[in-house]
Amino acid sequence: MPHHAASIARGVGHSASGPVKAPAFDYERPVDVDGALRLLAEGGDDAKLIAGGQSLGPLLNLRLARPALLIDVRMLDEMREISASDNAVVLGAAVTHARIEDGNAPDPAGGLLRYVARGIAYRAVRNRGTIGGSLAHADPAADWVNLMALLDATLIVRSTAAERTIAAVDLVAGPLSTVLAADEMIVAVRIPKLSGSARVGWFKFNRKPGEFAEAICGIVDDPERDVRRLLVGVTESGSPHVADGAELLSAPPDARDGIITAAVAGAGFRCGTYKHQVRAVSLRRAMDALR
Ligand SMILES: Cc1cc2nc3c(=O)[nH]c(=O)nc-3n(C[C@H](O)[C@H](O)[C@H](O)COP(=O)(O)OP(=O)(O)OC[C@H]3O[C@@H](n4cnc5c(N)ncnc54)[C@H](O)[C@@H]3O)c2cc1C
Fold it and tell me: I need a labelling partner for 117 at 20 to 30 A (CA). Which of 28, 125, 161, 212 fits?
């Protein structure tokens, strides 16, 4: 299939601190996933996918990214699909935060996805930002990076050569860095369904509503599916810390503090520091929110 291609040359704006407009790049809008993957393989290090542009756009304008070619995948039908089976919900990578917020997707975690989507930035960002773009951008403070790890989601990833799956908890290699190869694209995210009797708790600590989180913690209790997990998010390594939550979930309230302190220390935060404290409070509040 032919690619719809347009070449865009941008003007260069300047502020006191340097350029504030993206450098010139070529722009292609392929008609299907295969076309996008071909362009990505051919473009090598000079090519970059763009979905909602909410993270990449600022990087281009600040010239922290200088791709020669942008491949727009936001409108690809296959990447916008939503499907559900008895065991899982599968969201195409180009499903926007707004569609999740609006309940266009069945919620595999009793409403938690909708709740989390509502807390991402503000509506204009949610209208364009996508779950796949957010995961690939790998900001340690991003909501989906942390929630998908807690829910044991799997990313379906393709290149021209192969398809493979990556556990969401293994995606992040470091802050703003993933284990994806340069020619790989996330096409969908598979999220296991919790049972109807599952309880979930989530707490995002940020200074203003809609801001990136300073800390994110969560907990899932689903005995029917044998799932008891806790999350300590926004770590120094960038990788969400997911651990067994059974001890915390079964502890009486007056015994929780010690377990929470140890769990946060296990995520790499030294006891007594502000960073440890803010996560300990967040995990306690996630426990309090459990329902
Ligand atoms: C003001 C503001 C506030 C924000 N606040 C929050 C917040 O509170 N919480 C939060 O989680 N996020 C927040 N964000 C980020 C927002 O959620 C972005 O939408 C998201 O991080 C990136 O998604 P995108 O679709 O725009 O990706 P893009 O910006 O288009 O792309 C981001 C990166 O992912 C790559 N990419 C895109 N799609 C794919 C794919 N399918 N496969 C592989 N690589 C891909 C691109 O090449 C690029 O490197 C905020 C953004 C802004 C501008």
Answer: 28
| From-to residues of CATH 3.30.43.10 in the chain | 4-72
**Residues forming beta bridges with residue 201, ordered by sequence position:** 219
Q: What is the CATH number of domain 77-192?
A: 3.30.465.10
CATH architecture of 199-288: 2-Layer Sandwich (3.30)
Work out the burial of residue 128: count CB atoms within 10 Å of its CB; fewer than 13 is exposed, 13-18 middle, 19 or more buried: middle
Q: In 3D, which of 84, 103, 212, 202 has the Cα closest to residue 148? A: 202
Total-model pTM: 0.94
Inter-residue contact 181 to 171 (CB < 8 Å): no
pLDDT, one tens digit for every residue, the chain (291 residues):
333 333 333 434 455 556 578 999 999 999 999 999 999 999 999 999 999 999 999 999 999 999 999 999 999 999 999 999 999 999 999 999 999 999 999 999 999 999 999 999 999 999 999 999 999 999 999 999 999 999 999 999 999 999 999 999 999 999 999 999 999 999 999 999 999 999 999 999 998 887 889 999 999 999 999 999 999 999 999 999 999 999 999 999 999 999 999 999 999 999 999 999 999 999 999 999 999
Q: 50, 139, 207: which to mutate for ligand 1, most atoms within 8 A of CB?
A: 50
CB of 108 shorter than 6 A to ligand 1: no
Residues of the chain with CATH 3.30.465.10: 77-192
Sequence-ordered list of residues with C-beta below 8 angstroms from that of 274, at least 6 positions apart, any chain: none
Question: Distance, CA 83 to ligand 1 centroid (Å)?
Answer: 22
Decide if domain 4-72 falls under CATH 3.30.43.10.
Answer: yes
